[in-house]
Write a structure and sequence with these properties.
mainly alpha, about 0% strand
Amino acid sequence: MVSHPHARKVLLYALSPRDPRHFAPQLVASLLAPGDQSGGTRKPLALRALELIIQPDGLLPSLLQLAIDRMGELFLGDSTFWPHVAEDRLRLHLLAEMLIRR
């Protein structure tokens, strides 16, 4: 997931839900906000996000370990696999969010 440019959006959302640095306010208002009223949601968004991120087996510790193990491949890229790696700045956005949340 970390290597695919579109899949990284999912990870960014998990690390920083609805952050306007990563998600347009129009997207949040039209697609995400209507789900806030869902009866199936038991926990507030902030609590859910925090639990996903900080638990020892959660997303952030796993991503940080992955970054340590495979930093060059994941964040500098492999131009044979993804030819537009220099244009793929979302890799660095994800790394920045991981380090900010650390």
